[in-house]
Amino acid sequence: MPSPVRYREGLREEVLAANLALVRHNLVTLTWGNASGIDREAGLIAIKASGVAYDTMGIDDIVVLTLNGEIVEGERRPSTDTPTHLELYRSFSEIGGVIHTHSTWATSWAQAEREIPILGTTHADFFPGPVPLSRHLTAEEVANAYELNTGVALKEVIDEHGIEDLPAALVPGHGPFTWGKDANQALERAVTLEAIAHMAFLSVALRPDIQPLASVIVDRHFTRKHGPGAYYGQGD
Ligand SMILES: [Zn+2]
Fold first, then answer.
1. Is 60 labeled as catalytic in the residue annotation?
2. Which tens digits make up the pLDDT trace of 62-91?
3. How many A from CA of 147 to the centre of ligand 1?
4. Is 125 a catalytic residue?
5. I need a labelling partner for 205 at 20 to 30 A (CA). Which of 109, 112, 113, 215 fits?
């Protein structure tokens, strides 16, 4: 009998919970979404299987793979977006969880190929600038290893802004990706991103000539939650 695969206890359960939470937060329609998490010490990630209905999803629908995409546990095929997740994990050791959805509001900005402008303090607490778009892929990048190249383009936009600050990006014509120290933080950010995207849309509709939030307020809000001077919350 093969020896059992070793990874952090609770990894698959955390990833299952994050996937199910996407439904609770109204971020997925049908099966269009996926959450993953990693055990860095074991070098293994857990991700949702491809095309599984959320209402019957169980622990057996969470597949465990190496960072090179080799399946080590689970009978099912992993999400088709797995190569994008793997590229993000390989590129940034800070990333412990990744989420991709086609949530309506964030995806609408992605489809319009517009960055989400920074218009209020909810956004400033999240990221101190417009939520960026990754670049377009070339025809060749789409034809060969499309999902991997989506990850490569996301890596480029993260490098531009810094992994410490940037929590999310939009893939043009497609939808949002968020990441975090674990699947749960990636989930929190997916929920926040959707709220910001919704509010930004309504704000622009109410006032088409709206200007970005004043930078002095942006800085104040972002730095009270992030970085060495942070004082928001309980300092955990
Ligand atoms: Zn997608």
1. no
2. 999 999 999 999 999 999 999 999 999 999
3. 10
4. yes
5. 215
